[in-house]
Amino acid sequence: MRRSKADALDAYIDPKDLSASTSRLLIWQALRKYSLKALVPMLRDPEIEVRTTAARLLQVRGGSAIWGLARKLCAAKSVRERVMGLFILGQLGTPRLPYKLRTLDLIESLLSHRQPAVVVEQALYSIGHLRQGQPLEHSALLVRIAALKVRKGSDLAAAKAFALQ
Question: Which CATH superfamily is domain 5-164 in?
Answer without folding.
Answer: Leucine-rich Repeat Variant (1.25.10.10)
